[in-house]
Specification:
This protein is α+β, with helices and mostly antiparallel strands and 368 residues long. It has 10 helices and 7 strands. The strands form 3 sheets. Strands 1-2-3 form a 3-stranded antiparallel sheet. It is elongated and about 115 Å long. The relative contact order is 0.08. Keywords: Membrane, Transmembrane, Transmembrane helix.
Amino acid sequence: MNATELAPIVYTAWGNTLNTTSWSTGAAVDWYVPGTYLNKTVVDDIFHWGADYDVSPPVFATYPANHSTLLNQTGIYGREALYLLGKGSTDEYALCSIQAFLTPFCFTSYTVSSDNASLRSNCSGPKTEDPHDMRYINSLINATSGNDTISHDWPYLLTSWSDSLSLNEGLYGSVSNNAQILTQLILQDAALSPNMPSMAEGIAVMAGSALLMASEASPLVQFWNYTTRTLSPGQYQYFNATLETQMYASGGNGETGTHAFFIVLVTVFVVNIICLVYFVRGDGLVTDFTETLNLFSLSINSPASDFMAGSCATGPSSKHFGPEWVIKASGEHVYLISKEDLDPETESGTPGSIDRSMLSRLKGMIGR
Protein backbone atom coordinates (compact mmCIF):
# COMPACT_ATOMS: atom_id res chain seq x y z
CA MET A 1 0.00 0.00 0.00
CA ASN A 2 1.13 3.55 -0.64
CA ALA A 3 0.70 6.59 1.61
CA THR A 4 -2.50 7.68 -0.13
CA GLU A 5 -4.13 4.29 0.34
CA LEU A 6 -3.15 4.31 4.02
CA ALA A 7 -4.37 7.85 4.69
CA PRO A 8 -7.86 6.79 5.94
CA ILE A 9 -6.26 4.86 8.85
CA VAL A 10 -3.25 7.12 9.65
CA TYR A 11 -4.10 9.79 12.22
CA THR A 12 -1.54 12.40 11.14
CA ALA A 13 -2.99 12.31 7.62
CA TRP A 14 -6.32 13.61 8.99
CA GLY A 15 -4.82 16.97 9.91
CA ASN A 16 -5.51 16.69 13.64
CA THR A 17 -3.01 17.82 16.25
CA LEU A 18 -3.04 15.27 19.10
CA ASN A 19 0.34 14.25 20.50
CA THR A 20 0.76 10.88 18.82
CA THR A 21 3.89 9.97 20.81
CA SER A 22 1.71 9.34 23.88
CA TRP A 23 -0.45 6.75 22.15
CA SER A 24 1.39 3.87 23.78
CA THR A 25 0.06 5.00 27.19
CA GLY A 26 -3.53 5.11 25.95
CA ALA A 27 -4.02 8.72 27.08
CA ALA A 28 -4.19 10.17 23.59
CA VAL A 29 -6.75 7.77 22.13
CA ASP A 30 -9.68 8.44 24.43
CA TRP A 31 -11.42 10.04 21.46
CA TYR A 32 -11.49 6.71 19.63
CA VAL A 33 -14.84 4.94 19.95
CA PRO A 34 -15.13 1.64 18.07
CA GLY A 35 -17.77 1.75 15.36
CA THR A 36 -17.50 5.50 14.79
CA TYR A 37 -14.49 5.56 12.44
CA LEU A 38 -15.40 3.23 9.58
CA ASN A 39 -13.17 4.92 7.03
CA LYS A 40 -13.13 3.02 3.77
CA THR A 41 -9.81 1.58 2.55
CA VAL A 42 -8.73 -0.51 -0.42
CA VAL A 43 -8.14 -3.51 1.86
CA ASP A 44 -11.53 -3.65 3.58
CA ASP A 45 -12.41 -7.00 2.00
CA ILE A 46 -9.03 -8.49 2.91
CA PHE A 47 -9.15 -7.64 6.61
CA HIS A 48 -12.98 -7.65 6.89
CA TRP A 49 -13.39 -4.19 8.35
CA GLY A 50 -15.26 -1.03 7.38
CA ALA A 51 -18.92 -0.15 6.95
CA ASP A 52 -19.78 -3.32 5.03
CA TYR A 53 -18.61 -5.44 7.96
CA ASP A 54 -19.48 -2.98 10.75
CA VAL A 55 -15.95 -3.40 12.10
CA SER A 56 -13.69 -0.46 12.85
CA PRO A 57 -10.33 -0.54 11.08
CA PRO A 58 -7.16 0.15 13.06
CA VAL A 59 -5.86 3.69 13.31
CA PHE A 60 -2.11 4.28 13.29
CA ALA A 61 -0.57 7.35 14.86
CA THR A 62 1.69 8.23 11.92
CA TYR A 63 3.55 6.79 8.96
CA PRO A 64 6.57 4.69 9.92
CA ALA A 65 10.01 5.76 8.71
CA ASN A 66 12.17 3.59 6.48
CA HIS A 67 12.93 0.15 7.95
CA SER A 68 10.69 0.71 10.97
CA THR A 69 7.36 -0.64 12.20
CA LEU A 70 4.56 0.51 14.47
CA LEU A 71 1.38 -0.96 15.93
CA ASN A 72 -2.14 0.31 16.28
CA GLN A 73 -3.01 1.25 19.86
CA THR A 74 -6.67 2.01 19.25
CA GLY A 75 -9.65 -0.01 20.37
CA ILE A 76 -11.06 -1.17 23.68
CA TYR A 77 -11.31 -4.77 24.86
CA GLY A 78 -12.98 -6.94 22.27
CA ARG A 79 -10.85 -6.29 19.21
CA GLU A 80 -9.85 -9.44 17.41
CA ALA A 81 -6.45 -8.61 15.94
CA LEU A 82 -3.30 -6.60 16.38
CA TYR A 83 -2.07 -4.74 13.30
CA LEU A 84 1.50 -3.96 12.35
CA LEU A 85 2.48 -1.37 9.74
CA GLY A 86 5.98 -1.44 8.28
CA LYS A 87 7.98 0.37 5.62
CA GLY A 88 11.07 -0.77 3.75
CA SER A 89 13.38 1.31 1.59
CA THR A 90 10.73 2.06 -1.06
CA ASP A 91 7.61 4.21 -0.91
CA GLU A 92 5.41 1.16 -0.33
CA TYR A 93 4.08 0.09 3.07
CA ALA A 94 3.13 -3.36 4.34
CA LEU A 95 0.19 -3.99 6.66
CA CYS A 96 -0.21 -7.25 8.59
CA SER A 97 -2.73 -8.49 11.13
CA ILE A 98 -2.09 -11.05 13.86
CA GLN A 99 -4.97 -13.15 15.15
CA ALA A 100 -5.22 -16.24 17.30
CA PHE A 101 -8.02 -18.77 17.22
CA LEU A 102 -8.61 -22.41 18.05
CA THR A 103 -9.06 -25.21 15.56
CA PRO A 104 -10.18 -28.77 16.33
CA PHE A 105 -8.66 -30.10 13.10
CA CYS A 106 -5.04 -30.27 14.26
CA PHE A 107 -2.93 -32.42 16.53
CA THR A 108 0.61 -31.94 17.74
CA SER A 109 3.47 -34.41 17.44
CA TYR A 110 6.68 -34.07 19.42
CA THR A 111 9.60 -36.16 18.20
CA VAL A 112 12.81 -36.60 20.19
CA SER A 113 15.92 -38.37 18.93
CA SER A 114 19.53 -38.59 20.04
CA ASP A 115 20.57 -35.56 17.98
CA ASN A 116 17.53 -33.26 17.81
CA ALA A 117 13.90 -32.65 18.74
CA SER A 118 11.01 -31.27 16.70
CA LEU A 119 7.51 -30.01 17.50
CA ARG A 120 5.07 -30.20 14.60
CA SER A 121 1.44 -29.27 14.15
CA ASN A 122 -0.44 -31.65 11.86
CA CYS A 123 -3.61 -30.16 10.39
CA SER A 124 -6.10 -31.59 7.92
CA GLY A 125 -9.69 -31.02 6.92
CA PRO A 126 -11.77 -34.20 6.68
CA LYS A 127 -11.58 -37.00 9.17
CA THR A 128 -8.90 -39.57 8.40
CA GLU A 129 -8.38 -43.20 9.37
CA ASP A 130 -4.89 -42.54 10.69
CA PRO A 131 -4.52 -44.34 14.07
CA HIS A 132 -2.26 -41.52 15.21
CA ASP A 133 -4.98 -38.95 14.51
CA MET A 134 -5.41 -37.22 17.88
CA ARG A 135 -7.42 -34.26 16.60
CA TYR A 136 -9.86 -32.69 19.03
CA ILE A 137 -12.68 -33.04 16.50
CA ASN A 138 -12.47 -36.81 17.02
CA SER A 139 -13.25 -36.32 20.72
CA LEU A 140 -15.92 -33.63 20.27
CA ILE A 141 -17.60 -33.82 16.87
CA ASN A 142 -19.41 -30.48 17.33
CA ALA A 143 -16.33 -28.51 18.40
CA THR A 144 -16.32 -24.89 17.28
CA SER A 145 -13.64 -23.44 15.03
CA GLY A 146 -12.72 -20.40 12.96
CA ASN A 147 -14.11 -16.97 13.81
CA ASP A 148 -16.14 -18.35 16.72
CA THR A 149 -12.94 -19.12 18.62
CA ILE A 150 -10.96 -15.92 17.97
CA SER A 151 -9.23 -14.83 21.18
CA HIS A 152 -9.97 -11.28 22.34
CA ASP A 153 -7.15 -11.45 24.88
CA TRP A 154 -4.50 -12.18 22.26
CA PRO A 155 -4.08 -8.54 21.03
CA TYR A 156 -3.32 -7.37 24.56
CA LEU A 157 -0.81 -10.13 25.14
CA LEU A 158 0.84 -9.17 21.85
CA THR A 159 1.11 -5.56 22.95
CA SER A 160 3.60 -6.56 25.65
CA TRP A 161 5.24 -8.99 23.23
CA SER A 162 5.73 -6.29 20.60
CA ASP A 163 7.13 -3.84 23.15
CA SER A 164 9.72 -6.42 24.24
CA LEU A 165 10.83 -6.78 20.60
CA SER A 166 10.82 -3.01 19.97
CA LEU A 167 8.34 -3.35 17.11
CA ASN A 168 6.62 -0.07 17.98
CA GLU A 169 9.71 2.14 17.71
CA GLY A 170 8.38 3.63 14.48
CA LEU A 171 6.06 5.71 16.65
CA TYR A 172 9.11 7.67 17.81
CA GLY A 173 10.97 7.68 14.51
CA SER A 174 13.42 5.02 15.69
CA VAL A 175 14.58 1.85 13.95
CA SER A 176 15.05 -1.44 15.83
CA ASN A 177 16.93 -4.50 14.62
CA ASN A 178 13.82 -6.69 14.63
CA ALA A 179 11.85 -4.12 12.67
CA GLN A 180 14.64 -3.80 10.14
CA ILE A 181 14.67 -7.57 9.63
CA LEU A 182 10.90 -7.69 9.11
CA THR A 183 10.82 -4.79 6.67
CA GLN A 184 13.46 -6.49 4.54
CA LEU A 185 10.93 -9.29 4.02
CA ILE A 186 8.26 -7.03 2.50
CA LEU A 187 7.09 -8.52 -0.79
CA GLN A 188 7.82 -6.51 -3.90
CA ASP A 189 5.26 -8.42 -5.98
CA ALA A 190 1.85 -9.89 -5.21
CA ALA A 191 3.29 -13.40 -4.92
CA LEU A 192 5.19 -15.33 -2.28
CA SER A 193 8.89 -15.83 -2.93
CA PRO A 194 10.13 -19.45 -3.02
CA ASN A 195 13.53 -18.36 -1.67
CA MET A 196 12.69 -16.29 1.42
CA PRO A 197 9.77 -15.77 3.81
CA SER A 198 7.38 -12.87 3.68
CA MET A 199 6.93 -10.25 6.37
CA ALA A 200 3.76 -12.01 7.57
CA GLU A 201 5.61 -15.32 7.89
CA GLY A 202 8.40 -13.60 9.81
CA ILE A 203 5.88 -12.14 12.27
CA ALA A 204 4.25 -15.55 12.69
CA VAL A 205 7.60 -17.11 13.60
CA MET A 206 8.37 -14.34 16.09
CA ALA A 207 4.95 -14.58 17.73
CA GLY A 208 4.84 -18.39 17.76
CA SER A 209 6.67 -18.67 21.07
CA ALA A 210 4.25 -16.22 22.68
CA LEU A 211 1.34 -18.36 21.50
CA LEU A 212 2.89 -21.48 23.04
CA MET A 213 3.49 -19.66 26.33
CA ALA A 214 -0.09 -18.38 26.30
CA SER A 215 -1.40 -21.94 26.02
CA GLU A 216 0.43 -23.03 29.17
CA ALA A 217 -1.94 -24.00 32.00
CA SER A 218 -4.95 -23.41 29.74
CA PRO A 219 -7.83 -25.94 29.68
CA LEU A 220 -7.66 -28.78 27.18
CA VAL A 221 -11.30 -28.32 26.22
CA GLN A 222 -13.17 -25.42 24.62
CA PHE A 223 -15.31 -24.67 27.65
CA TRP A 224 -14.77 -23.62 31.27
CA ASN A 225 -16.58 -26.12 33.48
CA TYR A 226 -15.64 -24.59 36.84
CA THR A 227 -17.56 -22.21 39.08
CA THR A 228 -14.58 -19.95 39.86
CA ARG A 229 -12.67 -17.80 37.38
CA THR A 230 -9.28 -19.08 38.52
CA LEU A 231 -8.11 -22.36 40.00
CA SER A 232 -5.55 -22.35 42.78
CA PRO A 233 -4.10 -24.88 42.88
CA GLY A 234 -4.75 -26.12 39.38
CA GLN A 235 -6.44 -29.37 38.45
CA TYR A 236 -5.39 -32.18 36.16
CA GLN A 237 -7.20 -32.70 32.88
CA TYR A 238 -7.15 -35.72 30.61
CA PHE A 239 -6.56 -35.61 26.88
CA ASN A 240 -6.04 -38.09 24.08
CA ALA A 241 -2.44 -38.91 23.28
CA THR A 242 -0.24 -41.74 22.09
CA LEU A 243 3.33 -42.48 23.09
CA GLU A 244 5.68 -44.41 20.84
CA THR A 245 9.20 -45.47 21.72
CA GLN A 246 11.73 -46.92 19.35
CA MET A 247 15.02 -48.30 20.54
CA TYR A 248 18.03 -48.64 18.32
CA ALA A 249 17.17 -50.77 15.28
CA SER A 250 19.31 -51.79 12.34
CA GLY A 251 17.95 -51.95 8.84
CA GLY A 252 14.85 -50.51 7.21
CA ASN A 253 12.12 -48.93 9.28
CA GLY A 254 9.30 -49.79 6.89
CA GLU A 255 9.88 -46.98 4.43
CA THR A 256 10.71 -47.92 0.87
CA GLY A 257 13.95 -45.97 0.77
CA THR A 258 15.42 -47.88 3.73
CA HIS A 259 14.96 -51.43 2.41
CA ALA A 260 18.43 -51.38 0.85
CA PHE A 261 19.89 -51.66 4.35
CA PHE A 262 18.72 -55.29 4.50
CA ILE A 263 21.39 -56.17 1.93
CA VAL A 264 24.07 -54.90 4.32
CA LEU A 265 22.49 -56.72 7.26
CA VAL A 266 22.34 -60.06 5.42
CA THR A 267 25.94 -59.69 4.21
CA VAL A 268 27.25 -58.94 7.71
CA PHE A 269 25.26 -61.85 9.15
CA VAL A 270 26.70 -64.32 6.61
CA VAL A 271 30.26 -63.09 7.21
CA ASN A 272 29.80 -63.49 10.96
CA ILE A 273 28.60 -67.08 10.49
CA ILE A 274 31.63 -67.87 8.30
CA CYS A 275 33.98 -66.42 10.93
CA LEU A 276 32.26 -68.42 13.66
CA VAL A 277 32.62 -71.68 11.72
CA TYR A 278 36.28 -70.87 11.00
CA PHE A 279 37.11 -70.36 14.68
CA VAL A 280 35.13 -73.43 15.78
CA ARG A 281 36.84 -75.74 13.28
CA GLY A 282 40.30 -74.22 13.75
CA ASP A 283 43.16 -75.56 15.89
CA GLY A 284 42.82 -72.88 18.52
CA LEU A 285 43.95 -69.31 18.75
CA VAL A 286 47.11 -68.15 16.98
CA THR A 287 49.50 -65.70 18.60
CA ASP A 288 49.48 -62.32 16.90
CA PHE A 289 53.16 -61.35 16.61
CA THR A 290 52.25 -57.87 15.36
CA GLU A 291 51.00 -56.88 18.80
CA THR A 292 53.46 -54.52 20.48
CA LEU A 293 54.11 -56.72 23.53
CA ASN A 294 54.60 -59.89 21.48
CA LEU A 295 56.79 -58.15 18.91
CA PHE A 296 59.02 -56.71 21.63
CA SER A 297 59.45 -60.14 23.29
CA LEU A 298 60.18 -61.72 19.92
CA SER A 299 62.82 -59.15 18.98
CA ILE A 300 64.84 -59.25 22.22
CA ASN A 301 64.87 -63.08 22.14
CA SER A 302 66.10 -63.21 18.53
CA PRO A 303 69.79 -63.59 17.57
CA ALA A 304 71.75 -60.60 16.35
CA SER A 305 71.83 -60.03 12.60
CA ASP A 306 74.90 -58.83 10.71
CA PHE A 307 72.59 -57.07 8.34
CA MET A 308 71.38 -54.76 11.15
CA ALA A 309 74.92 -53.88 12.28
CA GLY A 310 75.35 -50.21 13.07
CA SER A 311 71.69 -49.55 13.80
CA CYS A 312 71.88 -49.79 17.59
CA ALA A 313 73.04 -46.23 18.23
CA THR A 314 71.30 -44.30 15.47
CA GLY A 315 68.38 -46.55 14.73
CA PRO A 316 67.57 -48.32 11.46
CA SER A 317 68.02 -46.51 8.17
CA SER A 318 66.41 -47.14 4.79
CA LYS A 319 68.78 -50.00 3.87
CA HIS A 320 67.76 -51.93 6.97
CA PHE A 321 64.16 -52.12 5.76
CA GLY A 322 65.05 -53.99 2.58
CA PRO A 323 65.35 -57.66 3.62
CA GLU A 324 62.51 -59.98 4.45
CA TRP A 325 62.14 -61.37 7.96
CA VAL A 326 60.74 -64.73 8.92
CA ILE A 327 59.80 -66.43 12.18
CA LYS A 328 61.68 -69.60 13.08
CA ALA A 329 61.20 -72.07 15.89
CA SER A 330 63.68 -74.28 17.69
CA GLY A 331 61.79 -76.50 20.05
CA GLU A 332 59.66 -74.12 22.09
CA HIS A 333 61.90 -71.15 21.35
CA VAL A 334 60.60 -68.76 18.68
CA TYR A 335 62.82 -66.10 17.14
CA LEU A 336 63.02 -63.66 14.25
CA ILE A 337 65.66 -63.99 11.52
CA SER A 338 66.40 -62.32 8.21
CA LYS A 339 66.27 -64.31 4.98
CA GLU A 340 69.84 -63.16 4.25
CA ASP A 341 71.00 -64.87 7.46
CA LEU A 342 69.45 -68.24 6.59
CA ASP A 343 71.87 -71.08 5.68
CA PRO A 344 70.70 -72.38 2.28
CA GLU A 345 72.50 -75.71 2.86
CA THR A 346 70.65 -76.50 6.07
CA GLU A 347 67.32 -74.79 5.38
CA SER A 348 64.82 -76.28 3.00
CA GLY A 349 61.17 -75.70 2.25
CA THR A 350 59.46 -72.52 3.23
CA PRO A 351 61.55 -70.53 5.73
CA GLY A 352 59.80 -69.85 8.96
CA SER A 353 57.20 -72.62 8.72
CA ILE A 354 55.78 -73.24 12.20
CA ASP A 355 53.24 -75.81 13.22
CA ARG A 356 49.89 -74.14 14.08
CA SER A 357 49.42 -76.27 17.16
CA MET A 358 52.73 -75.02 18.54
CA LEU A 359 51.85 -71.39 17.82
CA SER A 360 48.69 -71.80 19.85
CA ARG A 361 50.88 -72.68 22.88
CA LEU A 362 53.33 -69.80 22.53
CA LYS A 363 51.21 -67.01 23.96
CA GLY A 364 52.26 -67.48 27.56
CA MET A 365 55.89 -68.16 26.69
CA ILE A 366 56.29 -64.97 24.64
CA GLY A 367 54.58 -62.95 27.32
CA ARG A 368 57.28 -64.10 29.72
